[in-house]
Every structure is written in structure tokens, then in C-alpha cells.
């Protein structure tokens, strides 16, 4: 679920060391804290880690196959998966 805050006003940039802005938890938002939050947010991303290397989208291979072939492939995958269980 995405959090959608209410009563948010977007305006000009302010100096957070001069203006008092409080976070939801009551802490004061300073320039230093804002920089740390921005850095943390840009580090994080949704989804699984890349199979290639960090921050790179892994290549995908997709194919459309007849239903019977899909069923056979799925059965084969189940057999192989059972062989590799610890």
C-alpha cells in the first residue's frame, strides 16, 4: 500500500537550518537530516537484486509457447527442482 500524505504544500526551497519544519515523529528536519534522508532514499529501490551487478537491470528472456509445451516444461521444472532439494 502506498502512503499518500494529506495537506502537503509544494513551494519554494527553504533553509531548514533557519525555518522550523517538524517530521511526523516530532523531530526537527535540518539541512543535514534532509541530506541524509535524500541519500538513503536514493540508495534504496524496489524489487529483487540484480543478477548482473548492483543497480543494473538483469536481462530477461521471454517466449510465447503453446499450452501443451508450457505444461511439459512446468512438469520438467518440478522434477528438476525436487532433485535439487536439500
Commentary on this structure:
The protein is mostly helical. It has a domain at 12-44. It contains two helices and no strands.
Quick structural overview:
The chain is mainly α. The protein has a domain at 12-44.
How would you describe this structure in keywords?
86 residues; 2 helices; mainly alpha
Indicate the topology.
Blueprint: H1 31-43, H2 67-83
The secondary-structure element order is HH
Terminal CA distance: 36 Å
The tally of beta strands, per DSSP, is 0
What is the mean predicted local confidence, pLDDT?
A: 83
Structural class computed from helices and strand pairing: mainly alpha
- Estimated helix fraction: 25-40%
Largest sheet: none
Report the uncertain regions: none
User: What's the overall geometry?
Assistant: elongated
User: Strand share of the residues?
Assistant: under 5%
If helices are DSSP runs of H or I spanning 4 or more residues, what is the number of helices? Answer: 2
Q: What's the gyration radius in Å?
A: 24 Å
Amino acid at each position: 500500500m502506498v502512503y499518500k500524505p494529506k495537506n502537503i504544500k509544494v513551494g519554494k526551497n527553504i533553509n531548514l537550518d533557519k525555518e522550523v519544519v517538524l517530521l511526523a515523529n516530532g523531530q526537527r528536519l535540518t539541512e543535514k537530516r534532509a541530506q541524509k534522508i535524500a541519500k538513503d532514499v536514493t540508495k534504496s529501490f524496489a524489487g529483487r537484486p540484480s543478477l548482473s551487478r548492483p543497480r543494473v537491470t538483469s536481462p530477461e528472456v521471454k517466449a510465447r509457447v503453446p499450452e501443451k509445451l508450457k505444461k511439459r516444461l512446468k512438469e520438467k521444472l518440478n522434477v528438476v527442482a525436487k532433485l535439487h532439494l536439500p
